[in-house]
Amino acid sequence: MDWKTFQALLSGVNKYSTAFGRLWLSVVFVFRVMVYVVAAERVWGDDQKDFDCNTKQPGCSNVCYDHFFPISHIRLWALQLIFVTCPSFMVVMHVAYRNDRERKHKAKFGEDSKLYNNTGKKHGGLWWTYLISLFAKTGIEIGFLYILHRVYDSFDLPRLVKCEVMPCPNVVDCYVGHPTEKRVFTYFMVGASALCVVLNICEIIYLISKRIARIAHKIKQHRRHVAVYHDQPLGPSLEKKIRASAPNLSLQL
Predict the structure, then answer these.
(1) Quick one: average pLDDT of 15-24?
(2) If 0-12 CB within 10 Å is exposed, 13-18 middle and 19+ buried, where does residue 50 land?
(3) Domain-by-domain residue ranges, the chain?
(4) Under 8 Å CB-to-CB from 113, ≥6 apart: which residues?
(5) Residue 181: which region, alpha, beta or left (left: phi > 0; alpha: psi -120 to 50)?
(6) SS3 label, residue 239
(7) At residue 66, does pLDDT exceed 80?
(8) Which of 91, 164, 225, 240 is buried deepest, with most CB atoms within 10 A?
């Protein structure tokens, strides 16, 4: 996989993100993608060759490896990184849609006419798109953590597994290659994923609380204007109009 192209695609999300979103993107690329590319891929380079069983029975080692490691950690993390960053493209596509609408609007009504004050500002539909992308990223992170824990029964990696799957003749001891190193990387990647979940939840709380505060401020401002309007004394011209229209009002009633 070309991670540089992947990073270039996601770099456009950074300018539309909040502080929490920028921090999330930094954690993804520095603590997950970089660690994955530089170190983790080499540790899990050829995991099946490092899986050694104390038997010469043909096919036993392959079957035992498939039984205990149905999917490699490194491939599962690659899928997780791809899926967890996909919702961010929803925001980029929504902004691109707004830019296209703005361009067509200016072509029709002139350059001075504006459909949006700022196409990248999180208002209206873009706010909802951004919020949905956060919920999607959080759900995907939790889902992959659950899959990893479910497939391997825990986040720990044993040094020795006992296999009695056919065609093994009896209970066979199988040894995992580089177990301590793999355990360290597993805990690191799980911790980075958990940190991303926390950042997503913080950003969701921040966006919703900011939206509630903005709505509350608008309501307070509206009530203040209404109160000022009612407290203003009537001018002489307005008072004459009201008196002149009083007989007509009485007739209508």
Answers:
(1) 84
(2) middle
(3) 16-209
(4) 105, 106
(5) alpha
(6) helix
(7) yes
(8) 91
In sequence order, the β-bridge partners of residue 174 are 53, 161
Task: For the domain covering 16-209, report its CATH number.
Answer: 1.20.1440.80
164: amino acid identity, one letter: E
Distance CA 111, CA 109 (A): 7
Ranges assigned E (strand) in the chain: 52-53, 160-163, 172-175
pLDDT in tens, 160-186: 888 888 888 888 888 888 888 888 888
Please tell me the distance from the alpha carbon of residue 207 to that of residue 220, in angstroms, as a whole number.
Answer: 20
- Please check the confidence at residue 246 and state whether its pLDDT lies above 50: no
| Two structure tokens written together for 251 | 């007739």
Q: What count of Cα atoms within 13 Å lies in the side-chain half-sphere of residue 228?
A: 6
Specify the amino acid at residue 143: G
Amino acid of residue 84: V
Which tokens sit at 138? 């959080």
Query: How far is Cα 177 from Cα 49, in angstroms, rounded to an integer?
Result: 8
Residue 52: strand pairing partners: 175
Question: What phi-psi label fits residue 157: left (phi over 0), alpha (psi between -120 and 50 degrees) or beta?
Answer: beta
Q: What is the DSSP string of 132-185?
A: HHHHHHHHHHHHHHHHHHHHHSSS---SEEEE--TT-SS-EEEE-SSHHHHHHH
Report yes or no: 199 and 20 within 8 Å, Cβ to Cβ: yes
Q: Are 177 and 50 in contact (CB under 8 A)?
A: yes
Structure-token match 């043909």, residue found: 58
